């Protein structure tokens, strides 16, 4: 008569052991999943840091080249122009010589202008001194001169607010890339840039009325055009993302979002037109 009790007790012990084994396996699997998630987070953070270092190195190289252009080549060209002007005064009244001298002087002026423009584009001094709204307004105004496309800039928010310098620089480079994409590839006639800063919600939108593009095809190409990888990489550095509203013959609307907005300081005074 004792055998049934022994079987019941043994069965109960086995069930308890089986339950413990199941719970242990579940716990172990949970820990494995958590570990994998931690590893993925660490890898993502490492990639972000690596990208940030790469971007910082690129900007440092831009700054060095701009400094060399301004200090060395720009100075040499200015000295050359002064020397040439002195020589020009000694030419007398020979028509052909004066005509050639005028052409050379115009070429020097144009070269100096290009060197200054390239230097400013490599290191946007307006951005450093006056902030993102003024820099974007200036870039949009300069882009109009070399294209038939109409570019407009709208701004809302406190114009004295400054973001963290790294964030401002990355947003400026992203806006540059988006505007250049619209000018070169959209085939449209209008490009509008809209920037919103606190006390309103942050927002950066670049839209055009061009022929648009197939976003999925652009991402699946072996070498994606339009600088999409560069744009997304810069935004990852500052915990941002971009959404495209586009399609064939539908134009393109690019919306930049930031997961965290860090205010840095007050901007220096400069007139910025509001939308």
UniProtKB/TrEMBL annotation:
Sequence ranges assigned to domain Histidine kinase in this UniProt record: 64-262
Uppermost EC category: transferase
UniProt keyword list: ATP-binding, Kinase, Membrane, Nucleotide-binding, Phosphoprotein, Transferase, Transmembrane, Transmembrane helix, Two-component regulatory system
Molecular function as annotated in GO: ATP binding; phosphorelay sensor kinase activity; protein dimerization activity
Enzymatic reactions: ATP + protein L-histidine = ADP + protein N-phospho-L-histidine
Record-listed E.C. numbers: 2.7.13.3
Pfam family membership, one: HATPase_c
Transmembrane segments: 6-28
A GO cellular-component term linked to this record: membrane
InterPro entries registered for this protein in UniProt: HATPase_C_sf (IPR036890), HATPase_dom (IPR003594), His_kinase_dom (IPR005467), Sensor_HK_TwoCompSys (IPR050482), Sig_transdc_His_kin_sub3_dim/P (IPR011712)
Coiled coil regions, renumbered to chain: none
SUPFAM superfamilies named in the record: ATPase domain of HSP90 chaperone/DNA topoisomerase II/histidine kinase
PANTHER family per UniProt: NITRATE/NITRITE SENSOR PROTEIN NARX-RELATED, NITRATE_NITRITE SENSOR PROTEIN NARQ
Stated name of the protein: histidine kinase
